Batch of 3 targets.
Target 1
Amino acid sequence: MPLTDDVVVRRKDNRRAVALEERLATIEKVAGRMFATRGYNGTSLRDVAAGVGLSPAGLLHYFPDKAALLEAVLDARLGTVAAEFGLETGDGETFVRGLVAVAERDAAQPEDLRLFCLLSAEALDPAHPAHGYFIRWFSQVRAHLQAAFEDLDRRGLYRGWPIPPAQAAVNVSALRDGLNLQWLLSPDQVDFVATIRGSFQPYVDLDL
């Protein structure tokens, strides 16, 4: 509550909290880069600690173990995509356009895509700490795609029949995942964004 009606109270920043957030962001950035090149299994806490100028014990002050660090990296790199690209509006057209925008971002900054591919492949092992994370991720992607296609169908913008929206969601998400690897391995041979746009054309009446 302000002390008066006409004076803006300026509160001092909590410098310790700001410094902590900056240090956490630095650790997550370095760890993400290492996970994207070496995978989770090929990266040690000692590697990450050295990358940020800490001792292993010092790193454990911020993250209790490597699994906690992985969760933070996934949340920072992947968990923010929905909010950043408007994928939570419930509007089918916005969702589809958002996925194309994500593809454009991935093509320009492929580190997150490489991180996603390496970690999701490792997570096929049920013992991997991200196993459940990626099961939920792919399930949510299919569910959101299906909901987007169903919304477009109600608006007369879905043209995929006789393929129902649920199957179209599987088809589009599967093409995206397969394309990720092909493009990362041979970026000069695959037009990544154009293929993503084209994957929607059989199903939606939108100019993408």
Target 2
Amino acid sequence: MLFRLVRPLLFALDAETAHDVALPSFRLLQRCGLAGLPGGPLPGPRVRAMGLEFPNPVGLAAGLDKNAEYVDALAAFGFGFLEVGTVTPRPQPGNPRPRLFRIPEREAIVNRMGFNNVGVERFARNLRGARTRGIVGVNIGKNFDTPLERAVEDYLACLDAVHELASYVTINISSPNTRDLRRLQQADELGALLRAIVARRDRLAGRTARRLPLAVKIAPDLDDGQIAAIAALTAASGVDAVIATNTTTSRAGVEGLPHASEAGGLSGAPLRAASTAVVRKLARELGGRLPIIGVGGISSAADAREKLDAGATLVQLYTGLVYRGPRLVREIVAGLAAPAVRAA
């Protein structure tokens, strides 16, 4: 109810300003006990994946809380897990504004944020101060001005900084908004990157007696050969999951609409089918060797079930929350537990 009342006010603002207003407001309401939110993970179908026990399979995708500033407020929505970031070793402002655009006619968003964040040192302080004891993953990337041949150094620096704080770490190689980043999805580049990160993770595990799960986040704009190569590399590498997918550079489904021609990645309802197709192909190639976290265009329990039926073990939301509000989490968790949805 509250979101339905405030949504027109938020949508009267440009998209990034609305984001900057909404998150502190939710945090204030949550702290005052006025948000009308579950207050913690909703009970639902429990899932074990990556060596972790998820209270329900519905997670928050990276990008909403880039700096781990709102972990407690977002945990109150009822998610089974959160993913925060993307964080880079050094602070960076991201791309110039405007860089976030709604396409309400299709419940879509175009963003070219560019990994704007406070840097991993401050990020880690924020995360350390969170009170939630739920599952919180950290999405890591490289600084925009780090040469691609030195990208591994940035990933390792972030891994070192968040190792003791994160429930799992996601290696983001698929944002379209950092120049040449998606080249890291190519077989040679990806193999070398994963070997280095997994080796560092294993060394840290030897010192701390804690094996941190690793996930790799891939793009929806991959052909069948690329998906097969990524499946083979990830399954053999020692990582623990694949997240499919990030935003798309395609504009299928939004052609001719205001903001559709803006540069950046498209998320939301128009991405749903393409993302699900990648999940299905990836699941076929992996053959159960790794779990898949499905993300892209989920705005209902039926959308989430579609991802699970395609081969995902867990799902994540972002753009659906912008259009439907926090109640979407409750609706999806309840829907996934309902026999009618399971039989659909």
Target 3
Amino acid sequence: MQRSRLAASGIARYFEVVVTSQGCGFAKPDPRILRIALDGLGLRPREAVYVGDDPAVDGAAARAAGVPFIWMDRGDAVRGARPRRRVRSLAGLPRLL
């Protein structure tokens, strides 16, 4: 499903590796899903960044995998602390990278 969404949006060519919980058998916040992506890209955790819209689940997975986390703040209510590094759209990413 995710690959078809990327293709339909016209951005599939920007993704060398696509890892889904269905494909790897792990779901967030299990850090193994991020480690599989890192291995597929040949990167160490600090050479990547994880952008997610759920600070509790996505942030926990990133922390457990040692990957810096950026919160995609869409204005929804969040459980727990609000992450320090956040963007409201993908256009805001370059200033944090």
